[in-house]
Amino acid sequence: MTRVLDLLAARTCVSVELWPPRSDTAAARLESTLDRLALLAPDFASITYGAAGSTRDRTHDLVVSLQRDRHTTAMAHLACAAHTRAELEAILARYRDEGIENVLALRGDPPLDATTALEDGELRHASDLVELVRASGPFCVAVAAHPAGHPDAPDLAADRRYLARKLVSADLAITQFFFGVEEYLRLVDDLHALGVDRPVVPGVMPVTSVRTLDRMAALSGVPVPAALARRVDAARDDPDEVYRIGVEVATKLCGELLDAGVPGLHFYTMNQFAATLDICSALGLAKRAAARPAP
Ligand code: FAD
Q1: What is the per-residue pLDDT across 20-38, written as a single tens digit (0 to 9) for each?
Q2: CATH of the domain at 103
Q3: Strands, DSSP E only, in 24-136?
Q4: What is the average pLDDT across 208-212?
Q5: CA 180, CA 14: separation in Å to the nearest integer?
Q6: CA atoms within 13 A on the CB side of 125
Q7: Can you give the residue range of the structural domain that contains 100?
Q8: pLDDT band at 294 (very low <50, low <70, confident <90, very high)
Q9: Which residues does ligand 1 sit against, CB inside 6 Å?
Q10: Residues designated catalytic
Q11: Are 167 and 196 in contact (CB under 8 A)?
Q12: CA of 158 relative to ligand 1 center, distance in Å
C-alpha cells in the first residue's frame, strides 16, 4: 500500500485514469485491458466517480480490487456535490477501513449553482471535501487543477486563488487535460507566485478518435487548438490516421513535459490503453516500468 505523494517524491510517475465499468461486458473488457496495462506497470491508477453518485459502489469495488487483487496503488475519486456530509463520511470510513490511502477530492458537476442554498454543514467546494478527507483518516489527498481555469470561475486569477487554497491542505494536484506545455508551466508559475509548491501532475488525453475529441472538449470546456482540430477533421474518414495524429501530438507534449521536469504523467485512458502504451513506448517509459521490481 502506498501514498501517491511518496511515489511522486521517489520517481517520475506514470499513472492512468480508469472508469468503473457499467456492465458485465464492460467489466470483462476492462479486465483484459488491465492485463495489457501490466506491460506499463503504472505507478498508480485513479478511478472516476459518477457526478451524481451513480458509481458509488462500482468506483469503490474497482479501487479495492485494483489494490488487493492487482497490487496497483489506487486513488479513489470522490465528488462532494453528489452527497450529504454523512454519506461522504461513510464512504471515506469504508475506504479507510479497507486500507485505501489515496483520495482525489472533487466537487463534481452539481445540479446546483453557486447561489443554491445548502443545509448547514454540507459541502459546496472541493476545498470543503479536502478538509473532510483529512479529518476522516490518514489519506493522501489530491485535488483537480484546471490549467485554462475552471469554466465556472469568474476569471483565471480567482480560479488560481481557489486552487491555491485547496492546495494549502491537499498533497498534490492532477490537472485537467490541455494541449500545450506552456499552459502547464503557467499554472505552476502562478501557484508558485501564490506561495504553493505542491506537486502538480499534468493530465494528458491522447485524442484517438474524432468522437473523443468532440466529447471531451464539450464536457470539460477545454479549448482545442485550431491546428489540431483541422488535422483531425481532415483525417475524419480515416480512424487509423486520427489515432496516429493523436499519439504523435500527445507523445510530443509528454516529451516536453518530461523535459520541463514534471513529477509524473497522468493519462486519461477512457479505459483504452493502446494509445497510452504507444506513447509510453515511444518515450521509453514502458521499458522503465517493466524493469521495476514487482510489488
Ligand atoms: P472546485 O475546486 O470546488 O472548483 C469548482 C469551481 O468553484 C471553480 O470555478 C472554482 O474556481 C470555484 N471555487 C472553488 N472554491 C471556491 C470558493 N471557496 N468560493 C467560490 N468559488 C470557488 N468529475 C466527476 O464528476 N467525477 C470524477 O471522477 C472527476 N474526476 C476528475 C479528475 C480530474 C483530474 C479533473 C481535473 C477533473 C475531474 N472531474 C471529475 C471534473 C470536476 O469534478 C469538475 O471540473 C468540477 O466542475 C469542478 O471540480 P473541482 O474539484 O475542480 O471543484
Answers
A1: 998 989 999 899 888 888 8
A2: 3.20.20.220
A3: 44-47, 74-79, 102-106
A4: 87
A5: 19
A6: 13
A7: 4-291
A8: very low
A9: 48-49, 51, 77, 79, 106-109, 125-127, 144, 150, 152-153, 158-159, 162, 166, 174-176, 203
A10: 17
A11: yes
A12: 13
